[in-house]
Amino acid sequence: MQGRRSHDQVTDTAPQPNNRRCRPLFLQAALIGMLCFGASSCYTLTKRDVFEVAFRPLAPETLEMLSDEHHVVQPLPVLTPGRSISAYWDRGDASMATLIFFAGNGYGAEAALRRLLIPARKLGLDLIVFNYYDQGESVPSMAQMRTMGQALYSAASALSTPAARVIFVGGHSLGATFALDVADHNPVAGAFIAAPVTTGVAIIRHQLPYSRLVWLRPDEDYRQFDNIALAHQMHRKIIVFGSERDTDLPPRFTKEVFGALPADAAGKLVILQNSPHAGYFNEEEFWQELKSFFGLSGNAPFVGYIAEARH
């Protein structure tokens, strides 16, 4: 079932990070260099071609600034074997459910909090976000990241708050992969994904057209970057968003992932009209669809962004 399309453009007030796309910048240089040696060149895709940006843990003063009289943003302890993880939990005194959110590539926990805190709070949701990896840490593998996703769910479900009894997961772009994986393996109340890719190879072919002249060979870990396979295993309530204006990951990807869902997934497809790849959460229609689909409370408008203080 396809959702309605919006013809009202929402102004994007959030700054756009330079690394908002899902492709590593060094991969472009590597492919161009390999083309100089002929079209028969082979490039092996690994974890280096997935996680391109490391982040700093959030400072205590940042957590305090993002909190208010009814919500406290605090570190969330997460047990992950062999790795540390900077995760953060926005706890509201009247929240009815919890959202674990997996951001797109190039976005860290702070950017996710600034973009999602206002709508999540209005919808009565506690919010859990994290950094894929911190500065000074080694680049994680896909397998490690999926383990970390499960650890996030375990940490969220162990919280002793009413909101922890109902858990949703959501993901944007790269984060759709981990949202699907967590929803596949845990009794979540529902999931949403926005701008999902089909496979890791497909996104490179789309965003770097000259890569079609090179044989791309994913290693076994990189092969886990496959939302079609994950969608086949989805047996939860899920809403899938795409956008006509998303040139990084256009609607054909969204529709293919949605088409891979089994009949019992209770899914809904919504194609927005005006959202670029980084602008889904600045669309009022996005939040209205989410509210309706999951039966959440709250009054519009939902779009909002917490800007950094200017000194």
Report on this model:
The protein is an alpha/beta fold. The chain has one domain: 3-Layer(aba) Sandwich (Rossmann fold). The protein contains nine helices and ten strands. It has helices at 25-35, 60-66, 109-122, 142-157, 175-185, 200-207, 227-232, 251-259, 284-294; strands at residues 42-45, 71-75, 87-92, 97-102, 125-130, 167-172, 190-194, 215-218, 238-243, 267-272. The protein has an eight-stranded mixed sheet with strand order 2-3-5-4-6-7-9-10, sandwiched between helices. Strands 1-8 form a two-stranded parallel ribbon. β6 (167-172), α5 (175-185) and β7 (190-194) form a beta-alpha-beta unit. α4 crosses α5. The longest helix has 16 residues, at 142-157. The N and C termini lie far apart (48 Å). Mean pLDDT is 88; it is low at 1-13, 15-21 and 34-39.
Beginning-to-end CA distance, first to last residue? 48 Å
Structural class: alpha/beta
Q: Give the count of structural domains.
A: 1
- The CATH topology assignment is Rossmann fold
**Alpha-carbon Rg, integer:** 19 Å
Annotation field: number of helices:
9
CATH class: Alpha Beta
Which spans have pLDDT < 50 for at least 5 consecutive residues? 1-13, 15-21, 34-39
CATH superfamily: Alpha/Beta hydrolase fold, catalytic domain
Helix content range of the residues, please? 25-40%
Q: Order of strands across the biggest sheet? A: 2-3-5-4-6-7-9-10
